[in-house]
Write the structure tokens for this entry.
Amino acid sequence: MNPAHLQLLAACLFSIGLVVVITRRNIFFMLMGVELMLNAINLSFVGFSGQHSGENSLIGHIVPLFIIGVAAAEACVGLAMVICLFRGRGSLDVDDYAAMKE
């Protein structure tokens, strides 16, 4: 597969994730948009690895593993925060939490 095609796909996925984060007011959708953007970055790393380091280099494949680990931990913490917020307010709408500024 051509690395330019991978970069184009990664850019499209990142753009979709960014649009979801900006336009949606539900916290779950916002978290899914962030995860989509992180997966686009992973795809970009793997594409650049194949393009610049040769076929046998694993450097571009190791960095996404770290990103996946951090994203999994982030998803756990984010989901715990969402559950606590939902129990407190009974809603997942971001506008309901705008008044929580100190």
